[in-house]
């Protein structure tokens, strides 16, 4: 049911004529993904998913959509996408759904979600930082690099603007 | 009930409903510390603020509705419900109404994990603390949508300022409680309160408290950070074009946030429900919460407003660094062995 | 009733929704009248409406948003670390500290520079 919501809102996000509605559809889809995480027993991950994706990324996307204009001063409009690509996506989704339905019906699988191991958060944190510490540090530095890069770009743009004016 | 097709008797239905109503869960969710608590608390705070601000400004505040104006919130609510919801011609009505509703949904959500007493929680989530933060991070997008959907320069600009303000202070807010997390090793709010039985966290985490309190003021868009509202400049900022019930929802959401954030501060830094047993635990919790709210309200009447670029820079640089300094202090505390006071 | 945390979240949100939505409907029914150009104009403190509402305001603060996304993720990792901090042997703890220092150092320098030279 939740996966249905995820797929449905994703499709809506692609099809919406107003780009902002597309962003809203994306947000709903991501919240749905968090719901899936919860069903799979990953509470911690689900919450961070919401916080990071819906809280930050969606905001970024919406901000960009709302502030970017075409030269004529009109809001961004969605052009009619290539017929073939669109049809292709729908076909793929249909096939996936059909396969899933077939699997559920033909093979007698119990509908009950299996009991996933839900580790207590502290244990999770412990093992994560212990065995994957190096990966975490590298990721952290990568992110800092992103930030510095972004700031540098902003600085360059600013200088160009003021340099041109002078 | 005999067999799937037999309809349950009236007796069965009544029994079922009665069992639900008297169940502890129902009590918690609906009444305390749930829905009724939130609604009453938020409504009370609207009266409370008007009275306190009035006194600070040498006025009296609401006076006529009930004793000392205490029924004023009800009068306001009824009035707003009967007003026509006027929206600008090119504004997106459905979006605005939906987002106003969303604001209330999001503002009320933290109460689910905040413990008002030992065992008085709706859902004792192990990841409670970050649940609250994730919920708070949903506000900027809602505000953006309302500001943009209003199709009005004032509203949109207010929404943008609000967005940048909240975004700038969310990170220091998160980091300032990292110290508490390190000292207790848990994100469960009940456990965090329990860990403070000897010393409240405001003592070892004084830096964290300062940062958190400031960040909460910014998140609540209250003075000295109320530029998005800026009554003399932008009218009501992103809420300018909301009217009638839509406005009521937004307005109520603001005070719900105030109430619940004060409660969160109490739980995190002021020992939650701890206090001598002459009074029951929830009462202590409420006392402390309203003290925090009172301080926030008094600050509103006392401080001038901060300029937007100073505000943003202060949040990103100074507050962030103080929060990180707090983490370092916490590290030292733990390594010196004092962690045992809080259960490490 | 043995309900787990997330079901309660759902139930509570449904309760809030069910209590707020009728208010909206009520307000909508109470007020629905014809559209009137003067009444429907966006609020501009009495002036007639001028200019398109949606322009490129505050674009110069865009880097702040990018930083926010990055720091959101960093904070997530810091929390993971912090949770397990007291149970970690010293060696791991040092890694955490070093990470923080490397984070703080260049960052504060960058922010200081930007403040000095009035960047963004």
Task: Explain what you see.
The complex is a heterotrimer of chains A (166), B (344) and C (120). Chain A has helices at 2-15, 19-39, 43-67, 83-106, 121-131, 133-165. Chain A is mainly alpha-helical and 166 residues long. Chain A folds into 2 domains: 2-118, Four Helix Bundle (Hemerythrin (Met), subunit A) (Up-down Bundle), CATH 1.20.120; 119-166. With 344 residues, chain B is mostly helical. Chain C has a single domain (5-45, 54-117), classed as Methane Monooxygenase Hydroxylase, Chain G, domain 1 (Up-down Bundle), CATH 1.20.58. The model of chain C is unreliable at 46-50 (pLDDT under 50). Chains in contact: A-B, A-C, B-C. The interface between B and C is large, with 80 and 66 residues.
Features:
heterotrimer, B: 344 residues, mainly alpha, 14 helices, 63% helix, 0% strand, globular, C: 120 residues, Methane Monooxygenase Hydroxylase, Chain G, domain 1, 3 helices, 65% helix
User: Rg of chain B to the nearest angstrom?
Assistant: 22 Å
**Low-confidence spans of chain A: pLDDT under 50, at least 5 residues?**
70-74, 109-114
Which structural category fits the helices and strands of chain A?
mainly alpha
Task: Considering residues with a beta carbon less than 8 A from a beta carbon on another chain, report the largest interface and each chain's count.
Answer: B-C, 80 and 66 residues
Instruction: Write down the domain tally of chain B.
Output: 1
| Class based on secondary structure composition and strand pairing of chain B | mainly alpha
Separation, N- and C-terminal Cα atoms of chain A: 60 Å
Classified in CATH, the superfamily of the largest domain in chain A is NADH-ubiquinone/plastoquinone oxidoreductase chain 6, subunit NuoJ
Quick one: CATH class of the largest domain in chain A? Mainly Alpha
Tell me, rounded to a whole number, the average pLDDT of chain B: 79
Helix content of chain A: over 70%
**First-to-last CA distance of chain B:** 53 Å
Please tell me the overall pLDDT of chain A: 67
Secondary structure tally, helices of chain A: 6
Helical content class of chain B: 55-70%
CATH topology of the largest domain in chain A: Four Helix Bundle (Hemerythrin (Met), subunit A)
Largest sheet descriptor of chain B: none
Tertiary shape of chain B: globular
Count of domains of chain A: 2
Assembly level: heterotrimer
